[in-house]
Structures are given as structure tokens and as C-alpha cells.
Specification:
heterodimer; A: 202 residues; mainly alpha; Rna Polymerase Sigma Factor, Chain: A; 9 helices; B: mainly alpha; binds zinc ion
Chain lengths: 202, 170
Amino acid sequence: MPFPDNTNPYLSDPDVRLMLDFQGGDKASFEALMRKYYPRLLNFIYRFTGSAELAEDLTQEVFLKVYSASTAYRPKSKFQTWVYTIAKNISLNELRRHKKTPLSLDEPFLSEDGPVQRQLEDTQTPRADEQMLRDETSAAVRAAINSLPENQRVAVILRRYEQFSYEEIGQTMQMSVKAVKSLLSRGKENLKNKLTPAGTFE
Amino acid sequence: MRCDQAKKLIPVYLDGELGQEEARLVKGHIASCAACQKELHALERSWKMLGEWKNIDPAPGYVSRFWTKVSLERPWYETLGQEMGEALDRLRRRRLAPVYVMVCVLLMTSIFSLRNYWQMREAQELAASLDQEELEMAADVELAENFDIIQEMDFLEDLEVIEDLDSLET
Ligand SMILES: [Zn+2]
């Protein structure tokens, strides 16, 4: 770290301050960070791994890591960047561990005449019809995101669901903004091809 | 700008992350190319569709579940040590230390006084019982002498305690 502590630019990040307060023994600061980031990290990991159950365990693991890193913590990035990097690495390790025995995703992706449609056939109202379409879209989206290569998947999720800027994505994934542009360009193109195949979109 | 160049840039263009010059070129190309217009709309549409994958909520009690995990993963004496440290920190932060010292001094003084009082009473009772026994066992001089010695020793101890207390208070 080239900056001495008093000119460290990350000290202006309120979440870095909370982390330093926790380092000084304030448990409430840690809980404040948890309340702010736990739901977001849970959803990030959920979308990246495809399993809500696994996401809950891994999110706990992220905070155990933050907790045990706290004594030696020195701010070298925004807190958000740091904690998402931890979450990304923990999730990647878990996916690699399961490479031979693939993870079972939460629900089977629905096909065109899937269980939802059959279930709703006799009580079809415009509302139910709409809900069915939404469920199918959701399942298609999950399948499309799950089919992306790991790097594209991380970049897409951070951009679409976590509202990260390209710069923030670059910091979290340890790559240049130029690399992020190319990753997102390919990711979006792949998603477009899966979700709006030629012919279904006029 | 050619179509293949534009196609690569449109996804980033939609995020507003292109440089000014590139953005101008892409915009110009799209305005005059139906194929790239179609590409842009398809990208917009699929990106919007991703919103249909809704967020999940954390299982309730995730904070307390976390602290349980922490306490299970750490040996009890570390946790205890940390808690005592935290308690001391809180004391220090509230600047209550002088109050606590005062309470300690008062407590110790009253323990000494009480002990002193009970020892005096015991000695008095012993002296009283000795008087009675002297009447009953006047013949056994040796025993009476022993009692005298015990009696004296007790009073000496008391005197010492009182002296200690005096030196403490000054
Ligand atoms: Zn074109």
C-alpha cells in the first residue's frame, strides 16, 4: 500500500470505517455491515451458483472470512469491492469442488409444457396466464445465465443485479475496464441469442 | 463504421460506457442500419428480461446464526477473553474507573471491619467461657494457663489487624 494511513483514499468509504470500528472492538459495526451486505451477497452467490441453499452457507462463509480477516485488516479497496471479491472466490472454489459431481440446481428449468402450465390449465385467467409467462421467463433467464462461462456470468450478474459500474466490476474481478467491456459485450450477446432467438423476435 | 464493429460496441453503448467518439459513431451507424437497430432492440429486450429472475430473501436469523458459528469455531477461552476485554473497554470508555476503585476500597474496608468485629466477639466469648470454666476446673491450672495463652494470642492478632487497617486508610 503506497498510501500512509492518513491519506488512504478508502478511509472515506463509510463501510471501510465500519470495518475499522469493528477492528477496534465494536461488534455493532460488524452487524451493520452484515445487515447491509448479507442479502446482496446472498443473491449474488445464489445467481452465480444457481442454488439458494448453497448460497446461504457460502454467504455465512464470506462473513466468517471477513470476521477472521478483521484483526489484520488494512483498507486497500472499497469495502464493497473487497467483500464481493471474497464472495466470488468462495463461490468459484465451491463450483470447482463440485465439477465432478455437479450441483443440483434449485428447481428444474421449466419446458414449454412444464408443470406450471398443466397446473393452471383449468383455472386460466388473464392474471394466471401472465404469471405463467413470468415463471417461464424466469426459468429461461436462469438457464441462460447458468450457461454462460464463469467470467461472463460474474460480470453480467454484477452489472444487471448489483448495479456495479464497469470500473467496480474491474476492481472486483481484478481486470481492466477494457477487459470488462469485452466480457460484458460477449455475455450480453450470448444472453440475447438464448433469450430472443432469431424468428421469435420480429 | 461497419456492422461487425458496431455489433461489438452496441452492448457497451447501451450501458453508456463507451467513449464520446465511439458512442457518436455507433449512434450514427444505428440511425442508418436496420440490422443493427434490430440487434440493439434484441439486446435491450433480453437484458430487461433478466429482471424476471427475482431476488430471494435470507433465511431469518442470519446474524445470530453467524455468531453461533463464530463461537463454535473458536475455543471458549478465546471468546471469554475477548468478552472480558470488551467489558474492560466499555468500563474505560465510560470513565467509570475511579468509581470502581472507590467501590473496591469500600468493600475491602468493610470486610476488614467485619472480620475485626467478629474476632473481638469471639475473643470476648472465649474470655467469658474461660471465667466459667475456671470455676469448674480450678484444679486444672495448666489448662487455664493454655487458655490464657490462646486468649492473649487472639488479642494480639486483633491488634495487628487494627494496625493494618489504620495503615490502609492513611
Ligand atoms: Zn449495421
